[in-house]
Amino acid sequence: MKLGEDEKVILIGVAADSGCGKSTFMRRLTKVFGGKTVGPLGGGFGTPGGWETNTLVSDVTTVICLDDYHLNDRQGRKVSGLTALNVKEQRFDLMYEHLKALKEGKSIAKPIYNHVNGTLDAPETIEPTPIVIVEGLHPLVDPQVRSLLDFTIYLDISDEIKFAWKIQRDMAERGWTLKQVQDSIEQRKPDFAAYVAPQMEFSDVVISVLPSEISQEEVGKHLKVKLIQRTGLAGLNPSYILDPTAKVVVEPDPSQVKVGPTVGVRLASYKDKFYGREVATVELDGKLTDIQDYSNIEKFFSETAVKTPGELSAELIKVGANSPGSLDGTGFFQTLTALKLREFYEAATGKTVAAA
Q1: Cα-based angle 82, 140, 241 (whole degrees, multiple of 5)
Q2: How many domains does the chain contain in total?
């Protein structure tokens, strides 16, 4: 079986702003497809002489960061006066050429954008794999690139939550000051609204992270997460709670789902319209205190694409409570989306993926 000819290469696009938890999501996505690990996601970031490359993570799944297709390096953008969010700073023609080649089963020489020092480094060779995930600011912007994608996802993070996450990443991992983080966010807002956010219109699934509506803590302490699922797409059977047509709101029994003193857990499921299209939405507001209780949360949901009973909660438990978002709707819906993608892949290729 030759990739691109006898065996289809599935291209998945994941769009989101910087600092929105894409790396954590990528780990959840790649994990469900299994395969022999041949390289770590994140490459040499943090090691002497290393860089934050996005490279082959297994012999089944490849993750490509579209930052590598910036037209200019950090110094070049200072000259152009444009932010990395501006579409004029992206090499969409090369992006299309490379993704088309991978889909045809051909290797590519992909540039590397070095996040440590802001330079464009020497290219690295990327070999095709059955699943290729392209993640970054603009995977759904260019019509030609978008035409190659089999499945599309958008991570929609509210400004309040985005700010908290970006502080944690850029200050802790990149050594930025608080003022640098604040200035960066303010400078990026107009271009984010113009070039990144509109991609939600082209997404098959949107994971929307908002401040909790039931928390007694300050805004941003707890989350309400929505999974917005396109209906009518072959291979995607939207998840729902109890009834696929009705609006359902559920507050699990506290004896079954343990929570803290300032926030509970509320689930919801309903039909809606999103950018003029019919969608099915499920929500999880609040936070658990015991990751084992996901086994009781999972029971409310139908069409979760699990291969064995309790697989969704088992995957969350396997990752562990310390992983970002593992005790709220972020981890739950990222994992659910990963399982739905596995189901979509099987429908699109006729292949079977073993349960993780």
Answers
A1: 130
A2: 2
